[in-house]
Amino acid sequence: VKPEDRFVERLKELLPLSPSVLIAPGDDAAVVQHAGGPLAATTDVLVEGIDFLPGEDPERLGRRAAAVNLSDLAAIGARPEFLMLAIAFPTELGEDYPLAVVRGTVARAGEFGATLVGGDLSAAAQTMIAVALWGRPAGNPITRSGAADGDVVFVTGFLGQAAAGLRLARDRANAAARGIPGLSGSEERALLDAYHDPTPQVAFGVALAREGIAHAAIDVSDGLGVDAGRLARASGVRIVLEKTALPLSEPLLRFGEARGIEPAELALAGGDDYELLFTASPEDAERVEGVARRLAVRATRIGRVEAGEGASLRDGSAERDIVSFGHDHFQGKRA
Amino acid sequence: VKPEDRFVERLKELLPLSPSVLIAPGDDAAVVQHAGGPLAATTDVLVEGIDFLPGEDPERLGRRAAAVNLSDLAAIGARPEFLMLAIAFPTELGEDYPLAVVRGTVARAGEFGATLVGGDLSAAAQTMIAVALWGRPAGNPITRSGAADGDVVFVTGFLGQAAAGLRLARDRANAAARGIPGLSGSEERALLDAYHDPTPQVAFGVALAREGIAHAAIDVSDGLGVDAGRLARASGVRIVLEKTALPLSEPLLRFGEARGIEPAELALAGGDDYELLFTASPEDAERVEGVARRLAVRATRIGRVEAGEGASLRDGSAERDIVSFGHDHFQGKRA
User: Fold this and answer.
1) What is the DSSP letter of B179?
2) Average pLDDT of B99-120?
3) Are strands A318-321 and A310-315 parallel, antiparallel or unpaired?
4) What pLDDT, on the 0 to 100 scale, is given for residue A176?
5) What global pTM score does this model have?
6) What is the ipTM score, two decimals?
7) What 3-state class would DSSP assign to A161?
8) Distance between CA B49 and CA B335 in Å, rounded?
């Protein structure tokens, strides 16, 4: 158990049980009973030097802060509606800095139907951007805890691109290698964009909830390994993924070759993908693929759910534990 | 116009108009139309070294983070329901640190009927605590913009105590004077408590909204001067306060004497009071006082609303402008 997950368990003991809390802290988002129906809510904070590199473009940071929260609501199958933004920043940057953050947040949230309705500002030594987002479940909320023995495990999009993009961005910030041998300009851009400006799978998460075909879901924010482990743990099952099935993009494969890094490792441990990892019964697998086709979202079968516990990756006849592959919020610096 | 207020005006231009946003950013809280009725929401962030002293007790910080947000909902006349908490902190403090923050937030919010439903953690060089709180308006939301020529201006509780408490706390942190000549232990404690553990006027704000007797309200978080100026500006009126009417507590008067500081200056510029400044028509003034008696809250008539603009303090025949008395979030360090 990662320190962060142990923390969440200790945290839950502090919280009073309330009949109006339908889905409690520990999932991607909370769902509460409000007059007129359930409300889904989430909060995520980005900190300079931890969640992003110092000196990153503030408008893009605003977009990213919106996206990581939109991804949490997507994982639970809720339609985003409203958000608030708290920004702490070094005031010597001037008021244009937080305004650029706001502009990015407003634009990104607006693309998914959510409106910025409030905020707060404070001075600070390092920039911190906290978003609180809420909306309405599109069907029964999809928790992390419903995966069942025999389920198929799916993931949307490509994995590991953001981790490669972060490495590229870090190199650029350090004024190191500009232009990676073996990588075209557009391949490099694809990886950088995956890191700087992730696309939350809102429409797909909403469709899964509306159709009621996912048993459990989590967004891949800290790395496929650790997040698969969290889903397995919450559901009381074991998840076995197939290495050859992992969706790895052409740019990631090239990046891996050029750098001598195994692309699957970036997928397992990289984080920041903001794709949805979810399970469905084998009978519903084709319906899942139908939804994906309709929404032009890639959904790949990457493994299966078994009785047991933990999460592992199978590579031919070898199988290794992957639950410790990824980012832990107690272990600090990732950017 | 303070830099922060100018910022809010530039910010508002960035926000798309939405028919579901009933009260937009710039007030104490936003109110949005949700299925099943309006929802009031607010967010406030506390930053170490800015909004609180380094090394302050984390449980008390958690209580304070809840209180400043509860106070914003109180100002708009909404009943708090749910909140989320984002904590960035130096991870070398260990997981007990954020747990203590959570414990304080859960306890303080619980006293006012609000339940913590979610959160996020990140590493950071300095501690930052962001709360997002939402609830339901108890009647027509009380904005900052409804004050009318001829209104009576009221304030709840005492002013300036938190500013005195902050000075005491700062002295203690600097290992300077322990025990202030002329101040008893209980007087010192009253001032320290006003700073460390402010009490939001939730029941009173809800009662004002339910009875529909306040024309406009704001919570006094940045100083009576600047906050009176904000209310006047939002309403397009002038506010004239009477120096002799300001509610100054016995401990504050003693503190002022002992330190050679004019107590009224702490009330005007100190901030962190989390009392409600509001206006009502003269015919409703006695009803206001009836509500205050019923709830055992002090509500003092401290001035009146006139045609014109700005905010001033009258002292005998002298009158001076007070809109620049208080904290501006662009000017950094206050703690």
Assistant:
1) S
2) 95
3) antiparallel
4) 57
5) 0.93
6) 0.92
7) helix
8) 6
